[in-house]
Design a protein that fits this description.
Number of helices of chain B: 10
Largest sheet of chain B: 6 strands, mixed
Strand order of the largest sheet of chain A: 2-1-3-4-5
Number of strands of chain A: 5
Radius of gyration of chain B: 24 Å
Oligomer: heterodimer
Distance between the termini of chain A: 54 Å
Number of strands of chain B: 14
Helix content of chain B: 25-40%
Shape of chain A: elongated
Helix content of chain A: 55-70%
Distance between the termini of chain B: 47 Å
Strand content of chain A: 5-15%
Strand order of the largest sheet of chain B: 6-7-8-3-9-10
Strand content of chain B: 25-35%
Chain lengths: 405, 317
């Protein structure tokens, strides 16, 4: 145990002294912050539209349409021009359409379609339209008391039409959030596995591993390296998840209007984060043991890269499976949880409560058992122990080139 | 300065009938020898003879197919190997690791406490004149200094037996002398050393015993002085009249082999004589025939000659 910890500490020191490690550590929080800032900027842009907003007036009664146009002109005179009225000929793509219609009970409604008009402009429009209509009514009525009463009865209301919103179902939103967590783990896992592969292959190639093997058991080396690189990758993961959670609960996170909110929303649930961390550790142990074994067999970096392709291929397949589950391109595949390479991702992509707790625990136990078998094979690979059933070859004149001079 | 842990009267290393075959057919088929306490044993063989395979099996890096390895009277186990220090053939320390950290790390792996390990590392670095570079990263050291640090890693935990694979390769003469001095000090305190080398000169100067390995088998095991008696007995002769030389050598019961070096028309011959025939007898016979002899140089009875004889016999067998 002591030797394992010594090896782990050495791995941590080796990677902790590299500037690239600290860059990787800070990259996640920086990306999270950028996501928050971009979302907040987008939200602020929708709140402050451009000044010259074009409007098209549609009114069944031309007199009402003229009154609205006159009211807008008056409003623009009192405040900086905010609305520009387009003629039908100019109105190919107006920002806003104002539909003017008389409602029962002498009410007048101006329905705002498209981009909302600024609240100040709406209030000004209501006021000017009311004044204009009163004046028109008084003029038409010859300023009689009756006409005055009629003008007072006019009620103007500017109503903003609600834009049709494609509402995402809560289940789909959750799925995207879970996918965000899976992708974060996936990225971190691939990075950590790359570190681990390099650590073992480099030492195998330059024979530093021989020095270690002369002083520590192969299992201590395997789990020491797993522990060392694992702790570093968990630190990176914690920084990333922590930054995500911090941004999600901050005012940047609360202001997110769209996809940013969905992505950051994944970080607001502590139980999801804890589950993700635990599953990540088991996944790292399993994939890591496999890569150490391959690194030990490979003997140099090119061979290791070739041999590790199937592992990274499986990880890529996992990525696509997670993607299909998120998009709903294929139906749920609950049986994936029983395939150890897919188990961690299947657990994380599964909606809460969809998989019984007993099944999750059994799947994790199966994964741990797989890890033990892989670590055992890796241990044999480190010490070049032959498989017992392999046929032994007899001595085949090892050194035939030795000749007396 | 150097200390040897728990001196024991038990033979530090005994290897019997060791066999290990790799996929390509190389390896060792029957290696047996022992290393005595307070001795330096040279492990000699050409490339591919099986030296590294044997050393790896001793330190537990590979599992042998058959044979026995005993360390300090016990079957080689992880616990028994804790009294053993090992230097692999190719040196590999992490370039960003600091010299004293590397030495202390290896000492701690063998059970030393952190404080003792760092004290020991500092003392060893001072012993070889590198105390000023204790906190230097390995990548900042010269190749020779990095190699010396690696040797210190092997001896940091005060082992009773050192197994070293080509410890002198890449070292300049001064560094070699320092390392040899370290080894001599280690031996004088009861430690045992087994090291592989291609340098017969180093082996002859430093070793008490040698083990010659050829074709995956032990060709010789014994004292250096005994090994040199196997060196060929004879003369290098450079002569014009090859036929006359062969006739004389045959008459004396010897044999002659041409060497690929010529002086004008004269060819150099390696003449091996029976040990009962004195060298002057050959000189006299050549003089009687009035042959023009351009060179006449007795073959040195050294370890290199012995190696070729012994390894050649093994290969022929």
């Amino acid at each position: 145990m002591r030797r394992m910890w010594l090896i782990a500490r050495r791995e941590m020191a080796a990677y902790g002294s590299l500037p690239s490690f600290w860059i990787a550590l800070l990259l996640g929080p920086v990306l999270m912050l950028l996501t928050g800032l971009i979302g907040a900027y987008g939200a602020s842009r929708t709140e402050a539209p451009a000044a010259a907003q074009t409007v098209l007036i549609r009114a069944a009664d031309p007199a009402l349409g003229s009154a609205v146009i006159a009211a807008i002109a008056d409003a623009n005179r009192r405040a900086p021009p905010q609305l520009r009225v387009l003629t039908p000929a100019q109105a190919a793509t107006p920002d806003t359409v104002l539909v003017v219609s008389a409602k029962p009970g002498s009410a007048l409604e101006v329905l705002v379609q498209g981009r909302p008009i600024p609240p100040m402009a709406a209030a000004q429009l209501e006021k000017e339209l009311l004044t204009g209509l009163r004046r028109q009514a008084l003029r038409e009525a010859g300023a009689s008391q009756q006409a005055l009463d009629a003008a007072d009865a006019v009620h103007v209301q500017v109503v903003t039409a609600k834009a049709p919103v494609r509402k995402m179902s809560p289940a789909a939103a959750e799925q995207i959030s879970r996918f965000a967590i899976v992708m974060l783990l996936w990225m971190n896992l691939v990075g950590a596995l790359g570190m681990l592969l390099q650590a073992i292959v480099r030492e195998r190639a330059n024979r530093a591993l021989d020095s270690l093997l002369a002083s520590a058991r192969s299992t201590e080396i395997i789990f020491g390296k797993l522990l060392g690189v694992g702790i570093l990758s968990v630190v990176v993961l914690a920084a990333w998840l922590g930054a995500g959670a911090a941004i999600a609960v901050s005012r940047f996170g609360a202001a997110q209007p769209g996809l940013e909110a969905l992505l950051l929303g994944a970080f607001t649930n502590p139980s999801t984060l804890i589950q993700a961390g635990a599953v990540y550790l088991v996944a790292f142990a399993m994939y890591g043991s496999a890569l150490i074994g391959l690194g030990a067999v490979a003997k140099d970096l090119p061979a290791a890269q070739n041999l590790s392709r199937p592992i990274f291929g499986v990880l890529l397949l996992v990525f696509f499976v997670a993607l299909t589950q998120m998009t709903g391109a294929v139906g749920p595949m609950p049986w994936l949880i029983w395939l150890p390479p897919f188990t961690p991702f299947a657990i994380l992509m599964s909606p809460p409560g969809a998989t019984p707790v007993g099944e999750v625990i059994a799947a994790l136990v199966l994964m741990l058992a797989t890890t033990v078998v892989i670590a055992g094979a890796a241990s044999m690979a480190l010490t070049e122990t032959p498989l017992r059933w392999r046929k032994k070859r007899r001595d085949a004149s090892a050194n035939s080139r030795l000749r007396y001079p | 300065m150097l200390a040897v842990a728990a001196p024991s009267t038990l033979t530090p290393l005994r290897v019997a009938n060791l066999a290990k075959t790799y996929g390509g057919g190389r390896g060792v088929s029957d290696v047996s020898f022992s290393v005595a306490r307070g001795s330096i044993t040279g492990f000699i063989g050409v490339n591919g003879a099986g030296k590294s395979t044997t050393l790896k099996a001793i330190v537990g890096l590979i599992a042998p197919d058959s044979g026995n390895i005993e360390l300090f009277g016990q079957p080689a186990s992880f616990a028994a190997r804790s009294r053993l220090g090992f230097l692999p053939e190719e040196r590999g320390l992490a370039p960003r690791e600091r010299a004293s950290d590397a030495i202390a790390f290896h000492a701690q792996l063998k059970g030393m406490s952190r404080e003792s390990a760092y004290r020991r590392a500092d003392a060893l670095l001072e012993r070889i004149g590198l105390s000023g570079r204790a906190r230097a990263r390995i990548g900042e050291l010269s190749k020779g200094n990095a190699q010396r640090v690696q040797i210190l890693c092997a001896i940091a935990h005060d082992p009773a037996l050192l197994i070293l694979d080509e410890p002198f390769s890449g070292l300049d003469p001064i560094a070699q002398a320092e390392v040899q001095s370290l080894f001599s000090e280690f031996r004088s305190q009861g430690g045992a050393i087994l090291f592989s080398t291609h340098s017969m000169v180093v082996a002859e100067r430093l070793c008490d015993h040698v083990v010659i390995i050829s074709d995956g088998r032990t060709a010789f095991e014994g004292a250096v002085a005994e090994a040199t008696t196997h060196a060929p007995y004879g003369v290098y002769v450079t002569i014009n009249d090859d036929a006359a030389l062969l006739e004389i050598v045959q008459a004396l019961g010897g044999e002659a082999q041409p060497f690929p070096s010529k002086m004008s028309d004269a060819l150099r011959w390696r003449v091996l004589l029976p040990r009962t025939v004195p060298v002057p007898a050959l000189m006299r016979a050549l003089a009687e025939r009035e042959l023009a002899v351009h060179g006449f140089e007795p073959i040195q009875a050294d370890l290199e000659g012995a190696f070729w004889t012994l390894a050649g016999q093994r290969a022929a067998a």
